Structures are given as C-alpha cells and as structure tokens.
C-alpha cells in the first residue's frame, strides 16, 4: 500500500532535460512518476492508468497540450488534476488553458519547489485514497462536500438532495474550482454528443441554485457573463 503522501504522477513533456529534472526532484520526495513524450502517448496512458495528477506541457511534437487536456476532460471517467507547463505567459494563453480544463498553469522557467507545491495543493482537494472518496471546497457555511461513492452532497452541516444531472453539474463545478466552466463544456461533459437545448440546461441550473443556494444566507453559484458558471467560495 502506498503512503498517503505518495502520488502517482504523469509527466507529458517532450524536453528530456525538463522531464529529467522533474523526475529527480519528485523521486526524492517518494512519488511514482510515468512519462510520455507525445500528446497521443500521454492520452493513452492517462486514460488507461491511474494518476493523481498530470503535469502537461503545451508544446508537444504531435498534438498540443491544450488538445490533450480537452480530450482528457471529455473522455476520462474521473477528474484528473492537470497542471499546464508552457513558455507562453500572456493572459490569453492562460485563459486558453483554463478554457480547455486545466486546473493550474505554470510558466517556464519554473521552480521545482513551486511545481511540487502546486501538485500538492491540487491533489489535496481530491483524496482518491480515502474510502469515502470525497471532494470538499470552501470554508464554513460555504463549504460543500461531495461523496463520489454515495453520490451525496452536503453544504456545511446540511445534506442536499440532488438528482443525477444536478449532482454531475455540481461535481464539474467543484472539480474545476476556482475556474469558471462554460455552458458548452457542461453540455459536452454531461450529455456528450447528444447534447441538450439551452432551455433544458437553464432549467437544471435553476434547480441546482434552488438546492444549493436558496436555503442559505449566502450564494455560491455565480454566473460570469460570457464566460460561464463558477463557485464563489
């Protein structure tokens, strides 16, 4: 059995020197690492093996890391924390990464200590080794806890009753926090190619707000105009 602090990390990076430096540093911390040097290889590994976190370079020799991230968000059966690595440091580049589902973004050159801290922060939010497999975000009365195994949700000390679609919408918002999730991404991840109309999605979001926000003095589901939904915690 692995120690609670030991992580399985996939590094998708085509620069051997960078991959080697990451390997040396994380090996010393007792983590298990696997490597992919192309986007296609990275997708195959991520979708067939278990990883606690993925460190993903944007510039890859076959397909860009942005497409890799998008594929994983649409095809993976669980949310895998993804940290983007890139030399692109403009705001538009960062927003593009977040739009494809990245959880965090680190520009090159970077400190290995900072990369390790970001990996730790992301993986602590979702503890896949716990028997209950829960995800918690927020503090005090705004804290929301989702139990993957039992498909239950609590806000603070209050249990919430959510049907499957509302549960999945909230799960996506929690797994993506603090990133905003577009309505098109919600449709793709919940209904797939079949999709759904805007009125149906609007109705589900309204019902989710009634369950998660209405009984409480503060609201946590926020709409950002022209961007999407985000948890305000």
**Number of alpha- plus pi-helical segments:** 8
Low-confidence stretches: 127-132
Give the helices and strands as they follow along the chain. Answer: EHEHEHEHEHEEEEHHHEE
Largest beta sheet, briefly? 5 strands, parallel
**Broad structural category:** alpha/beta
Q: Give the radius of gyration.
A: 18 Å
Portion of residues in beta strands equals: 15-25%
State mean pLDDT (0 to 100 scale). Answer: 86
Report on the structure:
This protein is an alpha/beta fold and 233 residues long. Helix content is 40%, strand content 20%. Strand 10 and strand 11 form a beta hairpin. Residues 8-123 form the Response regulatory domain. Residues 132-233 form the OmpR/PhoB-type domain. Keywords: DNA-binding, Phosphoprotein, Transcription, Transcription regulation, Two-component regulatory system. This is Response regulator transcription factor.
């Amino acid at each position: 059995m692995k120690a609670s602090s030991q992580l399985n990390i996939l590094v998708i990076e085509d620069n051997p020197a960078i991959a080697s430096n990451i390997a040396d540093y994380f090996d010393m911390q007792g983590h298990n690492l696997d490597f992919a040097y192309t986007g296609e290889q990275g997708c195959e590994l991520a979708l067939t093996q278990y990883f606690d976190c993925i460190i993903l370079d944007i510039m890859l020799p076959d397909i860009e890391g942005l497409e890799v991230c998008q594929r994983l968000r649409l095809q993976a059966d669980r949310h895998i924390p993804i940290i983007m690595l890139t030399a692109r440091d403009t705001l538009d580049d960062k927003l593009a990464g977040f739009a494809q589902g990245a959880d965090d973004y680190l520009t090159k050159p970077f400190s290995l200590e900072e990369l390790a801290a970001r990996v730790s922060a992301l993986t602590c939010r979702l503890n896949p080794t716990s028997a209950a497999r829960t995800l918690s975000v927020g503090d005090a009365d705004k804290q929301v806890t989702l139990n993957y195994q039992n498909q239950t949700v609590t806000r603070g000390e209050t249990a919430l009753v959510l049907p499957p679609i509302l549960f999945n919408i909230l799960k996506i918002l929690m797994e993506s926090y603090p990133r905003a999730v577009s309505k098109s991404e919600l449709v793709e991840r919940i209904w797939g190619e079949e999709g759904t109309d805007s009125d149906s999605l609007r109705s589900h979001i309204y019902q989710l707000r009634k369950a998660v926000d209405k009984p409480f003095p503060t609201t946590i589901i926020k709409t950002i105009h022209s961007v999407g939904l985000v948890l305000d915690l």
